[in-house]
Amino acid sequence: xxxxxxxxxxxxxxxxxxxxxxxxxxxxxxxxxxxxxxxxxxxxxxxxxxxxxxxxxxxxxxxxxxxxxxxxxxxxxxxxxxxxxxxxxxxxxxxxxxxxxxxxxxxxxxxxxxxxxxxxxxxxxxxxxxxxxxxxxxxxxxxxxxxxxxxxxxxxxxxxxxxxxxxxxxxxxxxxxxxxxxxxxxxxxxxxxxxxxxxxxxxxxxxxxxxxxxxxxxxxxxxxxxxxxxxxxxxxxxxxxxxxxxxxxxxxxxxxxxxxxxxxxxxxxxxxxxxxxxxxxxxx
Length: 284
Ligand SMILES: Cc1cc2nc3c(=O)[nH]c(=O)nc-3n(C[C@H](O)[C@H](O)[C@H](O)COP(=O)(O)O)c2cc1C
Hints:
Layout: E1 2-7, H1 15-29, E2 33-38, H2 52-55, H3 67-75, E3 79-83, H4 93-100, E4 114-122, H5 131-141, E5 144-153, H6 164-183, E6 204-205, E7 211-213, E8 220-226, E9 229-234, H7 246-266, H8 268-280
Parallel strand pairs: 1-2, 1-3, 3-4, 4-5
Antiparallel strand pairs: 6-7, 7-8, 8-9
Helix pairs in contact: 1-6, 4-5
This protein binds flavin mononucleotide.
């Protein structure tokens, strides 16, 4: 049983790294073999948007970076812990760079069944609105099932060691993922948020002023105020509409992305003519 930690912080022995290592110690106590990759130690090129990987399995224009190595490590583990500090309300750029490279994993959708958990250190309460969203995107694209998430308020380098409660929480999170692997129980164990699919608290208000949508999953519900409290009612099986469910992704790929290839090929000559003036513009 292997548990892999992906570390999205540049800081060596910073808060993310310490919390991840603490979690890995917890996983080890349940018999897991553990490994941590600090993403900033690897070369992660931006996605070139060529789209080759969408149509041909494992084909990518980028040949000379470490993304395939990182993905092979994810392939080789039974459970994953993602750690990322919050940078300007979001996760760090190196994690986003990895997210953009995840298209190549599209052919594996629905084939992977592994639990994952997330650790997010941050410094200012309330200044982390998008990190859960973005980490959910990464885990979903990797085909992993999030079973828990913790956010830890801590600022200076390695200061988190002074926060015993946070350290215990991280240790417990590591134990939990190892137990989840052993018992094949991938049910969500964290605090229940608003979205029935990703459990996040963020919702987008739609223009009818009553429907709300989870921006990550696309799941929709009705907003109301009950006894002075904001509430969202989702249909019982609303989670089934999540854009990250394997069958929804399969349909997206089959009926939206795959047919776009024919249009692209059909319009080649017309595009060539119409793009000429943009090619020539601002070249000197
Ligand atoms: C460039 C930068 C941007 C940051 N932006 C935020 C932020 O938007 N919200 C927040 O709560 N903390 C922010 N922080 C603080 C870090 O999230 C916090 O210090 C965290 O504990 C760092 O973890 P690390 O030691 O693993 O890198 C920022 C830190 C840096 C360096």
